[in-house]
Design a protein that fits this description.
By secondary structure, the protein is an alpha+beta fold. The chain has 17 helices and 23 strands. Strands 3-9-10-16-13-12-11 form a seven-stranded mixed sheet. The structure holds glycyl-adenosine-5'-phosphate. The site of glycyl-adenosine-5'-phosphate has 19 residues, from β10, β13, β16 and α12.
């Protein structure tokens, strides 16, 4: 196993062992590509969402938030193009009965050529694949798989079916009696809830263009190939913002949001070199520019966020399908128009995985006989699930009571943990592993002079501080303010 695969394996098992992520319905052997967040995971997830929400909504006076329902009128998905076009080209291997995304098989082959230094072959295949994707030519994709002798990783054979398109939307029935019920879809993106509410928000909020509407929430896709833990799930969460602009200004705003969103990532302290933009050559039919913000996961650079200039495609189609005007009167130009939209769309779960991968560290600590490896999650303190752990040195002499007293004050501001079991060193390690940035030890001196030992997760340094100063010290380093002020 390569060191890189090894790191990813460690991150996934750490996530389970420390209550971040569990397989859904695990006692029934799990449900594929569906995951539950545990007691620490939910805190980290909430903190990421809060960081996004406050950055987008609180810090921008021209952005407001909504929370639209998951179920929407079925016509929404016809208008958005999802009923006809939200599909992946799939191919089955007749021997293993396994199904693959045809474009991913080809991408993997291109990577193989590149690794072997066969750059001409890689380029030729890449060009041919892009042409086939552009023309939606499924026969050409099938022929490329055959021509390049791509084998099924399970059966090792080249016994392939034709390439076919599979729609990724889940549908269900709404209504009490099966015969009378209507098919509705589980939304595959949150964005459409924003588009259909564009005029409601604009009018009731008296919003002036340019302005944005933000939303976080669940989305569902029947991903055929679900791999790499929470990277590609069937139920996941998105954080999306649609920014409505005057037609003709969308490219300026596209550049603006590209940079603003990258800065949001970098403000968490992750190295610049771990990120890159991947501009789309093949644009979706509704877009006139698109880029992905990619992060270097242990298995390579992958998309975490998309920035898309979606023109007026969605609003125009909803206007046509609903028969309701979705126009804006611009007092500055004295004209009516359908606004253009620049969208920022990030997967909350993918951001979670990004943070876990970049935070997981194994470090040699101690000297001589006391040398050991500590596992530490060096999460940004502002996002850590638990901000402070409070330990009485012993279970007697009034130390637990003093520790509880401190906890009762700090818990009003921070997520705290109280622990009195095991030696202090063990308690430190447990909190290093979940990323707690501060540990407080209450000892006999605390009873005499109201001071405690404050221990910092990353440096493992300890200092004696007054109990009265704890809230300020911890607050300064864990509040989102400390990121926003950067
Ligand atoms: N409204 C635009 C849109 O949905 P997308 O590129 O399909 O665009 C945006 O999705 C983001 O949602 C991706 O960058 C990714 O972070 C996340 N995402 C998409 N599909 C996902 C899945 N199956 N599992 C987890 N996250 C996913």
């Amino acid at each position: 196993m390569s060191q890189i695969e090894d790191l990813f394996k460690k991150v996934t098992s750490h996530a389970k062992e420390y209550g971040f992520i569990f397989q859904s319905s695990e006692i029934y052997d799990g449900l594929s590509a569906v995951y539950d967040y545990g007691q620490n995971g939910v805190e980290l997830k909430n903190n990421i969402r809060e960081y996004w929400w406050k950055s987008m909504v609180q810090l921008h006076e021209n952005i407001v938030g909504i929370d639209a329902a998951i179920f929407m009128h079925p016509q929404v998905w016809k208008a958005s193009g999802h009923v006809d076009g939200f599909s992946d080209p799939m191919i089955d291997n007749k021997d293993s009965k396994k199904r693959y995304r045809a474009d991913q098989l080809l991408e993997e082959q291109i990577e193989k050529y590149e690794k072997k230094g066969k750059t001409d072959k890689a380029k030729a295949l890449s060009d041919a694949m892009n042409a086939a994707l552009n023309d939606n030519n499924l026969v050409a994709m099938h022929d490329l798989i055959v021509e390049h002798e791509i084998v099924c990783p399970i059966s090792g054979t080249r016994n392939w079916t034709d390439v076919r398109q599979f729609n990724l939307m889940f549908s269900t029935q709404m209504g009490s009696v099966a015969e009378d019920s209507d098919a509705v879809y589980l939304r595959p993106e949150t964005a459409q809830g924003i588009f259909v509410n564009f005029l409601n928000v604009q009018k009731t909020g008296r919003m002036k263009i340019p302005f944005g509407i933000a939303q976080t929430g669940k989305a569902f896709r029947n991903e055929i190939i679900a791999r790499q833990f929470i990277m590609r799930m069937r139920e996941f969460e998105q954080m999306e913002m649609q920014f409505f602009v005057r037609p003709g200004t969308e490219m300026e705003w596209f550049e603006h949001w590209k940079q603003t969103r990258l800065n949001w990532h970098l403000a968490l302290g992750t190295a610049n070199t771990k990120y890159r933009f991947h501009d789309h050559e093949k644009l979706a039919h509704y877009a006139n520019a698109a880029t992905d913000i990619e992060f270097e996961f242990p298995f390579g650079f992958r998309e975490v966020e998309g920035i898309h200039s979606r023109t007026d495609f969605d609003l125009r189609n909803h206007q046509e399908f609903s028969g309701k005007k979705l126009q804006y009167f611009d007092p500055e130009t004295n004209s009516n128009y359908i606004p253009y939209v620049v969208e920022t769309s990030i997967g909350l779960d993918r951001m979670f995985l990004l943070l876990m991968c970049s935070a997981y560290k194994e470090e040699e600590v101690g000297e001589g006989d006391r040398k050991e490896t500590r596992v530490v999650l060096a999460l940004p303190p502002q996002l850590a699930p638990v901000k402070v752990a409070i330990f009485p040195l012993t279970k007697k002499d009034g130390l637990p009571e003093k520790a509880r007293e401190i906890m009762d004050v700090l818990k009003l501001s921070f997520r705290c943990h109280y622990e009195e079991k095991d030696a202090i060193g063990k308690r430190y390690r447990r909190h290093d592993a979940i990323g707690t940035p501060f540990c407080i030890t209450v000892d006999h001196e605390s009873l005499e002079n109201n001071t405690v030992t404050l221990r910092y997760r990353d440096s493992m340094q300890q200092e004696r501080v007054a109990i009265a100063d704890l809230e300020k010290i911890i607050g300064e380093q864990t509040s989102l303010r400390s990121i926003f002020a950067r």
